[in-house]
Amino acid sequence: MNAGSHEETPPHAPDELATEKLCAWASWRNTLLLALIIFIIRLIYSFISPYELVGDEAQYWDWSRHLSWSYFTKGPGVAWTIFASTEIFGNAVWAIRLPTLIAFIIIMLSAARLATHISNGDERPGFFAACLIALCPPLFAAGQLMTIDEPFFACWILAALISYHAFYRLKHDQSATLLWMLVAFILGVGFLYKYTVLLILPGLILFAIIYRKTLKLNQPRNLITMIPAFAIFLITISPVFIWNYQNDWPTVKHLVGHLGIEGGDVKITQENQWKPIQLLGPLEMVVVQILLISPPIIALIVISYRQAQKHKSTNPHQWLGVIYLIYCATPVLVFYFCVGFLKKVQPNWPLAGFLTLIPLAALYGPIGLGKFSLAIQTWKDNNKQGKRPHTPWQVGWHWAIGWGSVAALLIILAPYAQYFPNGENFPGMHRATGFQNDAALIQTQRNTLLNQTGTPPIIIADHYQKTARLAFYLPDHPAVFCAQAYFGARKTDYDRFADTNLNNPDLLGKNAVLMGGSAERWRNAFNFKSIKIVVENPADLSQQIFIAYDYQGPKKPLPTH
Q1: pLDDT for 157-173, tens place per residue?
Q2: More exposed terminus of the chain, fewer Cβ within 10 Å: N or C?
Q3: Are 240 and 192 in contact (CB under 8 A)?
Q4: How buried is 53 (Cβ within 10 angstroms: 0-12 exposed, 13-18 middle, 19+ buried)?
């Protein structure tokens, strides 16, 4: 399970004898070069990209201005990361997104090393694994935005890679204490980004139990080496639990609310209440994942698995690695398959499971392409008689390149649709573009009120994402207030931050610029002397803007749920 002199060298399978010298260009050196080129291109694009900060990105940036041990819906990892980047490079969109570009490269290289080690040190599957990561549409898309997903994915695949090394060392009577401690720290960091990282643990534990004799985990001394790792993991994730304990467990309430169960952070209604069984939910999840990952990559996973199974007696080292990859992937996929019976599974939720299946897809690459190259050469030597030859893996590979390349172009070019007639109505366009114009309208009203009264007004939006985007795109990055909890929706961190708390008595008597909703809704939730609409949009109430005078606080206290 290690490259170099420590690799086990099994007898070659018949297919490998003819192809082991082909695809020599698929080396670790070229893998690094590919990763560097992709990083540079995406970094340059981040400077000129028409993608504005989407709502979650802006929220995490605003969190980074209010550093905390944790937050209502997420751990502190994403806020701390953005804080580190913007402290160095400033509050620019590219600086906010820089960590996700780095995370994408970590994912590529970790997948490459994992495939290489499972292939007995052969660097060629590693190259194909890195390519397939780059060609996987949802992973490429996640690498465009600074959300929790890409750093979480990086922690997941990095933990899988180092755990594989640790198992190898135990198998060969070598100490793995430091490696397990590193795995524990990485999983702890991943937990600070997204709690789903815990779902890799059942796979690791089950693999260790079932193959305990092979891995020599039935020896007590090897189990004892994991105790320091467990302590490091608990210490790393402790900020989330300490903060939740101090704040009456809001994260738990948020997760319960997501399931539509009483005791969560949302009021249960007929629309959002827990529904016992949705029979088509799991099927929908499977279909969406296949289309999202891309059918060609799914086909490559199946092809490589079948080939590894075919040669498991001649290459047991690789077969054990294939089993390991599947064990890492299965818990998260099964978990969200089951969740599908209860509620709609969002497309990004199960994606982590494919991070170890993509290296599996790459394992047969050198043989599949090698056999194709030999067949093509023979076909040419025979004056191209008969049909052009193909191999299953080669066909899947070429389709993966086409599918992934088209998807990447669509992801990159999608925001430019706004410049075409009715382009602003392109699906999802309002989430990624156009908000700078909204901020400019708000700024105009701020200036109007300032000129009228001599006092800068406060700004209140009806939704947390709108609140965060205004805070970023207004010229002075002001504190913007969020009213959604007073409209009956769930609480947000804006309700607890000192400078965005609408119950602050220092706000009394101030004028305000309001964004979103209707005048009636604002009047029902807050005490103002008067409210006047200044930007009317009956077709989309979320875009309406109001000026309000003499703020006297909320009419009702926040709900306790």
Answers
A1: 999 999 999 999 999 98
A2: C
A3: yes
A4: buried
